[in-house]
Specification:
The longest helix has 16 residues. This protein has ten helices and eleven strands. By secondary structure, it is of the alpha/beta class. The strands form two sheets. Strands 1, 2, 3, 4, 5 and 6 form a six-stranded mixed sheet that branches. A five-stranded mixed sheet has the order 8-7-9-10-11. The chain is elongated and about 85 Å long. The chain has two domains: 182 residues, ABC-type transport auxiliary lipoprotein component (Rossmann fold); 147 residues, TolB, N-terminal domain (Rossmann fold), CATH 3.40.50. Helices cover 35% and strands 24% of the residues. α1 crosses α2, α2 packs across α5 and α3 crosses α4.
Length: 336
């Protein structure tokens, strides 16, 4: 899987770096003519200082190409336009450059990273609608490393985040619906998995699942993460990224066998997290009740959107994982 992704990343960069053909070489979809896009210099947040601008340019070029409608103007043309404007004693602002090149779109892109999540923000100006602006953002999980944990392979996730941000800024959630294979991407909401409340019953036969609740609760969260990651319209935060948010708010390491505290939820809200999954694991006479809830935390008033539950009849970790996957599928069915 890792090798395939690296190959895919290389192909993407090759395609992106060779987008110097004239717009006429594009084959417009339906009746649409190619839309010329100009990128202003990329901004990087503190978490993405190690990312090279050329990777963002290549990602945006490929993101445009995949739509068969949008054509990223080469950076060389931007530099040439700056010189022409200076010769005319015209200030080479981004807007003036866009007008000089007869661009249809002017994009301002900012990239940032929080632990294992990358975020791309795009401010999109339609040249014929200035000063109206259209904002879009896109997230992606940084799945891949080149060797060490700190040596991040940005390219595949960066492309996904750029596609999502651009689709949102264009107001078209299906912009990449016809793209091939893994390039088929949709805008996605963010989701964090919080603690699972454990409640044992000493009157019942002892279960190892409850004796080792610190280990089992973490395993449950990891199982939920793996299953939820299969839903293409969600970006799931791993526990390392979640806990880094808590740390920024001076919160102690969370207890995964307890429900999230109000302070933890407020910390997540400060990072514009959309959804939170939490739940309970309660020992009963029949076995153990497993319940999960999907919460909308994007607003001040937290709303429970959906809940699902099941019963575990045996002290068996594999069966617990299987039940959790089934519950997650039910809980997130609307995000397919």
């Amino acid at each position: 899987m890792k090798t395939n992704c690296i190959l895919l990343s290389i192909i993407a960069l090759i395609i992106g770096s060779n987008l110097h053909a004239q717009p006429d070489s594009l084959k417009p979809r339906d009746q649409f003519k190619p839309i010329k896009v100009l990128m202003a210099p990329v901004q990087f947040g503190d978490g993405a200082k190690d990312l090279d601008e050329h990777k963002v340019i290549a990602a945006m070029a490929l993101a445009g190409r995949l739509t068969k409608r949008y054509f990223l103007l080469p950076i060389e043309l931007r530099d040439t336009a700056v010189l022409r404007l200076k010769e005319k004693n015209i200030e080479p602002t981004a807007l003036n450059i866009a007008e000089e090149l007869r661009a249809d779109r002017l994009l301002f892109i900012k990239v940032n990273r929080l632990k294992n999540i990358i975020r791309v923000d795009i401010t999109n100006y339609h040249i014929d609608s200035i000063p109206i602006r259209f904002d879009g953002y896109g997230y992606a999980y940084l799945n891949y490393r080149k060797g060490s944990d700190e040596d991040v392979l940005y390219d595949p996730s960066l492309l996904i985040a750029v596609q999502r941000a651009f689709a949102v800024s264009e107001g078209d959630s299906n912009l990449y619906a016809d793209a091939p294979g893994s390039f088929k991407v949709f805008p996605a909401k963010t989701l964090v998995i919080g603690g699972i409340y454990f409640e044992n019953d000493d009157r019942q036969k002892s279960w190892e699942l409850f004796q080792f609740k610190e280990i089992i609760s973490f395993d449950m969260i990891e199982t939920i993460f793996e299953q939820a990651s299969k839903f293409s319209r969600l970006v799931i935060y791993d526990t390392d990224t979640r806990d880094s948010i808590y740390l920024m708010h001076n919160l102690s390491d969370p207890d995964n066998s307890e429900k999230p505290t109000l302070y933890e939820i407020q910390a997540l809200q400060s990072f514009s997290i959309d959804y939170l999954i939490t739940g309970s694991f309660i020992r009963t006479e029949k076995g153990a009740d497993i319940s999960l809830s999907l919460l909308d935390i994007s607003k001040d008033n937290i709303e429970v959107l959906k809940s699902a539950s099941n019963v575990l009849l045996e002290d068996d970790l594999d069966k617990l994982r299987l039940i959790l996957r089934t519950i997650v599928n039910e809980l997130l069915a609307d995000f397919n």
